[in-house]
Specification:
Elements (H helix, E strand, L loop, with lengths): L8 H31 L9 H25 L3 H20 L5 H27 L4
Length: about 130
């Protein structure tokens, strides 16, 4: 079968968000495994594989839609999205420093930094790539 389907910009944004989310989930899970091994941080009821996977993927799906809104609403929408994402990441890093418990603080900080990198850098690059 031959499918002559030209993806819409919204579907490209959503796919870019989902692929960036998958990459972020993999990086976070690797970080999670290494961090728990090095620090001896025991299993947490909130920070576990399922909650990381679902929450990060949903977050990046929504981020893909927001990226599309920025891309169409502003002349330099991609740049504005990157700036807003970087500022949001920095503010979230500052907020994550107030998480009680040093070990939990390190875990949350790592998750925020990894997600912020994928949100700020990878998502816009995936959208502009011809692979999607």
């Amino acid at each position: 079968m031959n499918y002559d389907y030209k993806p819409t910009e919204m579907s490209r944004s959503i796919m870019a968000g989902l692929f960036a989310g998958l990459g972020s989930v993999l990086a976070i899970l690797i970080f999670n495994f290494i961090y728990r091994d090095i620090t001896g941080f025991s299993a947490s009821g909130i920070i576990n594989i399922s909650s990381i996977s679902f929450s990060v993927l949903i977050f990046f799906l929504i981020a893909g839609v927001i990226f599309e809104v920025f891309h169409h609403a502003f002349k330099k929408g991609t740049l504005i999205f990157e700036i807003v994402a970087a500022v949001a990441t920095i503010l979230t890093i500052i907020a994550s420093l107030s998480v009680p418990g040093k070990l939990r603080e390190g875990m949350v900080l790592g998750i925020v930094i990894i997600s912020g990198i994928f949100l700020t850098i990878i998502l816009p690059r995936l959208y502009s790539s011809n692979a999607i």
